[in-house]
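<purpose> Linking amino acid order to shape
<body> The protein record starts here
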Amino acid sequence: MINEEKYREKSREYCRKLQEIASERNITHEMIAERTHFERSNVSRMLSGKYSPSLENFLKLSEAVGISIELKI
């Protein structure tokens, strides 16, 4: 089982990567907020790694940035 701290660190890492991709694609936090219906301030907190979103919200952020997440088993 993954411990809580390890989970949070991975979540922050993935969110920072989404931020990097959004920046490369000139996608602003305002645009992401509009696409996800999240508050812009919450988008900023999630993408900066200050807040770890739920899996559902992470997938919404990913979609707003144009990233497809695939589960490999």
In short: Helices lie at 4-24, 29-36, 40-48, 55-65. Residues 29 and 43 are 6 Å apart (CA to CA). The two ends are 17 Å apart (CA to CA). The chain has a mean pLDDT of 91.
